[in-house]
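FW: tagging you since you asked about this chain on Friday. Here's the raw sequence from the shared folder, copied in full. Didn't touch anything.
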Amino acid sequence: MAVPGKDVHGPLAGVRVVELAGIGPGPFAAMLLADLGADVVRVDRPRGGGLAINPEYDVTNRNKRSVVVDLKAPGGAARVLDLVDRADVLIEGYRPGVAERLGVGPAECHARNPKLVYGRMTGWGQEGPLAQRAGHDIAYIAVTGTLGMIGNPGEPPAIPANLVGDYAGGSLYLVVGILAALHPARVHGTGQVVDAAIVDGTAHLSAMIHGMLAAGGWQDRRGANLLDGGCPFYGNYETADGGHMAVGALEQQFYDEFIGLLGLADVAPARKDLARWGELREAVAARFKERTREEWTAVFEGSDACVAPVLSLREAPGHPHLAARGTFVDHGGITQPAPAPRFSATPTQVRTGPAQPGADTAEVARDWDVPALAEPAEPSEEAEPAKEQEDH
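HL: got it, structure written out here
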C-alpha cells in the first residue's frame, strides 16, 4: 500500500498529523488534512468509539491510518509522545484538562517537540463558564444567535443537521488555524496551541449579518430578511409532485428572467414593493404548484434565473453538473464527496477507505520509526472509560 504523505499527491504531502480519536468535528478536520495529502495517524482506543456505525462506513476516517493505544494503560502516553516527536500536528477533541490528565497535553507534547501545532477542538472552548459542560452542535449554535436566524417565522428554528456548528464553525476553523500555525512553526521553529471552539467559529460565520444588523439592514427575527426566507425571490417552493425548487433571483436582471420564465411578468407586483411581498410570494407559490420538479427544472435549464431543484442526498451525485465535475466519487462501494478544494499542481484524491482501528500499527511503527508502537501493551485496569470527549 502507498504510504500517505510520501508517494501520493496533495499540497500537504509530507505533513504528519496525530489524531487522538474522537467524534464529530475533530475527525472531520483530520479527514480534510488527510484529503489534502497529510499523513494522518488516528490513535484509536482499545474499547472503540466513534460513530455508532460499522467503521468500514465512517468516511471521515478515509485517507488515514490507524493505530490502537490505551492512553490509560502504563506506557500509553509514552507511545503517543513517541509519535508526537515525529509529527507536525496533533488534534484532540477532549474536554478541557483531559489531555493533560492523560499525559498528552500541550506542555508534555511541546517538551518533546517544540515545533508541534497542537489543535484543540471543543464546543465551548478551553475556558469560560461552560467550558466543562457537555454539549452538542445544536446548543453551540443556539447561544451564538445563528440557530435563531434559521427557519420560518412563528415556528421553532430549523435544525441545519450538524453542518453549521460541528463542521463549518468547528472543523473548518480548526483546519484554518492549523494551517496558519504551521507557517510560523516552520519559519521560526515554534509551535503553538490552536483553540478552536465551535461557539467562536459559528459566531464568526455570522460576521456579515452582524454588520447588516448594525446598519439597520437586517431584522433580528426569522423570516424577515433578504437571505433568511423573508424575501419571496429567495426561498424554496413546493412543486406539483411534492418536490421543491430553490430560488435565489436577488439581482434585478436575474429576477426579471425568473419572473419571465415563471410566466408572471405581467401580473407580479414590483420587486421592490415590500408591502406586496406577501402577494408576490403567493403568486410564485401557486405557479410552482402547477408543474413537477422535473418540469420546472427543464424550464429553468440554461437560464440565469438562479433556480435549482432541491435534491436529496442520494439524488445529488447524479446531477449533471456535479457528475461532470466529479463532485462525488465512489470508493470501496461508498458514494461520497470528493476532496475539496481542487489544486492545479498537487491534485488530491480518495486514496484509501476508512481506516480500521489498529490495522496500520505495524506499518506506522515502521514508517514513523516508532518500534515500541508495535509492541504489546499492558491493558488498562479501568473497566469503563471516563467521559473524555466533547459530546458532539
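FW: The CA atoms of residues 10 and 346 lie 5 Å apart.
HL: agreed, and The longest helix spans residues 163-188.
FW: great, closing this out.
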